[in-house]
Amino acid sequence: MANVTGHRLGLGQGTALFIGAVLGPGVLALPHLASASAGPSSIVAWAALLVLSVPVALTFAALGARYPDAGGVATFASRAFGPRPAMIAGFCFYAVVPVGVLAGAMIGADYLASAAGLGRPGTAAVTCALLLAAFAANHGGLRLSGRIQLVLVALLAALLVAAIVAAGPHLDTANFTPFAPHGTLGIVHAAGVLFFAFAGWEAASHLSGDFADPRRLLPRATVLTLAVVGVLYLGLAITVTGVLGDRAASSPVPLALLLETGLGADAARPVTAGAALVLSFVAMNTYIAGGARLGAALARDGALPAALARGRIPRRSLALLAIATGALTAVVLSAGLGLDPLMRVTAACLATVTLIGTASATRLLTGRARTLARAGTFFTGTVLLSCGVYLAAPACLVLAVLARGPRGPRGPRRPARAQTPAPDAARSVLGAGK
Does residue 117 surpass a pLDDT of 50? Predict the structure, then answer.
């Protein structure tokens, strides 16, 4: 992906891009999922993940400053450990794209259904319509500009601030008791799904080559991003718990409820529904576009069938993702599984990618940066363990890569017609917002 701004990034726009990589429509649903797992004590999980993600964020900033390259995690893993860990990172993301895309569609559908009073069939129809629109757009080669993405990220941040400010006066301390109805295990369980909200720090490495002065500006942009995201996440978690009480665990649209409390239903519902639909579509478009290109890159390198690598727009890889997403959608909607398992599977795979990145840093960095990398690796590994049974998803992908053995590209390396370069494919996926 080329420089989205057309010029070298300064501190302001670089910080905005980092915030966009971490924030996403997933945060519209995560307060509900965390509250369902841990009740009011989900705030502890939010705060702990924020604090412990600091070494992860700074590790990727150090990697980007020292090795400014668009390849991101796959490049670092290849440098540190060789091709198979790089391939594992690619497989973990490619395989989870249908899961993350379906989750995004369901988030948008839930908010629209809540605003319009649709039942379960209506919600399912909106979910399918969003999926069809996103895949059709990518089939035609639609790419949203970096400026549009930044505007929509600003919209999400404004919505979060508006919800916190409008509903804050209605906070009731009684809603914080009992504080930990599900004990420590509930907090751990909440942390497993909340990692979805803290993935994206690796964007520092993908964008490093676009900064005017990576060594000076990357760490500053990372620290500013940590501050902004921390305020938004903690403010939202505290407000959702204190204002909604038990409804935080039962309603899939906590942001809509906060705005209704502060502004009234007539004003809040259409705004939150429209914003959720747009933000969900943008996230889905990003996942699908990057995933299709990563599939083509994996096919070019012999990890997937070579036919998937053909064409300027990787429509065959896109078709494979569409088929997988359609099959998963049929299973999820018919079984009524809901968002929670989808978000947890996605979080487990993203945590695996992040773990590969931080582990690579322990080999590539030195001094205090290596110490931070070790702390980040320990933290990410701990969060990965909190995913519990959902570890089966990345574990199966790791075993599949290891079973293949070391393989290079099929035949002599020659550029396919209008083939997307591997670093760009890796960057567009691993640096995508949620």
Answer: yes
Strand partners, 211: 9
Closest-CA residue to 354 (of 19, 72, 102) = 72
Whether 2 is in a domain gets the answer no
For residue 9, the cross-strand partners are 211
For residue 383, the Cα-to-chain-centroid distance in whole angstroms is: 15
**Does 413 fall in a domain?**
no
If you ran DSSP here, which 8-state letter would residue 421 be given? Answer: P
Domain count for the chain: 1
Question: Using 50, 70 and 90 to split pLDDT, how confident is the model at 203?
Answer: low
The alpha carbons of the chain give a radius of gyration, in whole angstroms, of 21
- Once rounded to an integer, what is the mean pLDDT over residues 61-72? 74
With contact defined as beta carbons under 8 Å apart, do 393 and 112 qualify? no
Q: Give a yes or no: residue 433 inside a domain.
A: no
pLDDT, tens digit (0-9, with 9 covering 90-100), for 393-424? 999 999 988 887 655 444 334 433 333 333 34
**Residue 35: closest CA among 232, 180, 195, 235:** 180
CA distance linking residue 370 with residue 78, whole number of Å: 18
Cβ atoms of 63 and 76 closer than 8 Å: yes
**Kind and range of the H or E run holding 297:** helix 265-300
- pTM of this prediction? 0.80
